[in-house]
Amino acid sequence: MVTFQGPFQLGSILLLLFTANGIFEPLEVALNRIWNCPRNRSYFKNQLVSLALIFACGGLVMMSTTLTALDNEYLGKSTGWSPGLVRFLNVAVFKLAALPLSVVMLLLIYWVLPNCKVSAREVFPGAIVVGLLLEGLKFINLLTWPYLRAKLAPEYGPFFYAATIVLWGFVASMVILAGAEWTARRSSSSATSIRSST
């Protein structure tokens, strides 16, 4: 794939990392409001935290993809199984690995991004629920893709892929924020009940 795309472009990678940082600044502001954090990070600190999250989440995705590819190669060469069976097992392993990776990425975002102390134990249930919902959204996307394509292609022309990404990105971000809100309310109500019982 690299040879097809041309030589490695360091400038393009750096630009991609810098622009990807932009998603975490509004998300930090939203999570700070949800968790009642007194103030937001400075722009520079937000960029550093965002870059660390991009490398952590990107590393998890790359690790999953690499393990799946190695598993595919290993199964094909060492077992002599048919390519169809190897392909099926490869997809099954990739799908099974997607949920725990989504949960770990959401846990990192919910735990690290707010500018106040949030317990990993508090956000873990929300990360699991939101991870399951996001995996469900993937299947909904696959089921609705022909209808979305038929609806968006005439309206957006060659930009219907971008419109679809924006649409599903919006839905996913609302699910992520709803999960954070649910987690914060759940944590607040459990803390209130503990205080009232003592």
Summarize the structure.
With 198 residues, this protein is mainly alpha-helical. The protein is built from 7 helices and no strands.
Please render the helix and strand layout as text.
Elements: H1 2-5, H2 10-21, H3 24-34, H4 43-79, H5 83-112, H6 120-156, H7 160-197
Helix pairs in contact: 2-4, 3-7, 4-5, 5-6, 6-7
Question: In words, what does this structure look like?
Answer:
This protein has 198 residues and is an all-alpha fold. It has one domain (10-197). The protein has helices at residues 2-5, 10-21, 24-34, 43-79, 83-112, 120-156, 160-197. Helix 4 runs antiparallel to helix 5 (83-112) and helix 6 (120-156) runs antiparallel to helix 7 (160-197). The longest helix has 38 residues, at 160-197. The chain is globular. The termini are far apart. The model has no long low-confidence stretch (mean pLDDT 80).
* Sheet of most strands: none
Helix content estimate:
over 70%
- Shape category: globular
Radius of gyration: 20 Å
Classify the secondary structure makeup into a structural class: mainly alpha
Keywords:
mainly alpha; 0% strand; 198 residues
